[in-house]
Amino acid sequence: MSTDYQKAREGLGQRLRELRVESPDGRLTSTALAERLGWPQSKISKLENGRQTPTPEDLRAWAEATGREETFEELHARLKGFESHIRSWRRQLAAGHRPVQDNWKTLVDGSRTLHRWGNFAVDGMLQTADYARHVFQCYEALQKCPKDTEEAVRARMRRQEWLYRPGNRLNVLLWEGVLHARICPPAVLVAQLDRLLGVVGMDTVRLGIVPLDAELALPPGNAFCILDERLVVVEDWHAELWMDDADSVGTYRRVWDAFNASAVFGTDAQRVITRVRRSLTL
Predict the structure, then answer these.
(1) What is the pLDDT of residues 150-162, one digit of tens each?
(2) How far is CA 266 from CA 54, 197, 207, 259, in A?
(3) Distance between CA 180 and CA 229 in Å, rounded?
(4) What is the CA radius of gyration of the chain?
């Protein structure tokens, strides 16, 4: 995965490695540093290679263990700079939607469990090709980005291969308003609702619908995705917000759990979808 966020994390890891090998007490091996900190050696490796995000406490301990206590503020500033990383749509869509879909496929392929909340469109992991085509066209008009709709649709459909791999789990909640949203012709929407009816009961998918008349503990808010309890990606009109600090991930998981408590599943979810489907005039 090549993102500004990951590059920033790798840069911090490189700085941590520099502090280890240039310690005033002499070059420290990763094993020696792990022993000094009381950490597993694998944690040293993950931090230095940008595969794990350190906590502020980790950074303070690292600075002290390498004899460079004065570098903590620098390290902490780097951490705060990418704990909440904004990836603007203007930059992401400069070459069209296809590269964004490819990046998301890489991100999803490296995950086993997804928790998603959708309040404006059917989740991309469950979209039909025709429905996805209209979604991309909407955003092409808004963002004035290069038109590569068909390539983007094919990339999104390839991303859905993840659903058919044993051990993966998609936990998706949709606001009922999504089922009514006429962002595509009625015939396309009917086919999309049929697709949703078909995934109810899949062993890799748990689909919940939050009815319009359900009591809510929170306002619907923005759509978001939590990947393996390690990263949350929030969608807004101007950008995606990527966060992997424990507090943010925990907050969004509590939000997801709140909507989950208001959702219906199984045959009850199918009844809601079927009711909306019958209301459509073709």
Answers:
(1) 999 999 999 999 9
(2) 40, 9, 8, 16
(3) 30
(4) 22
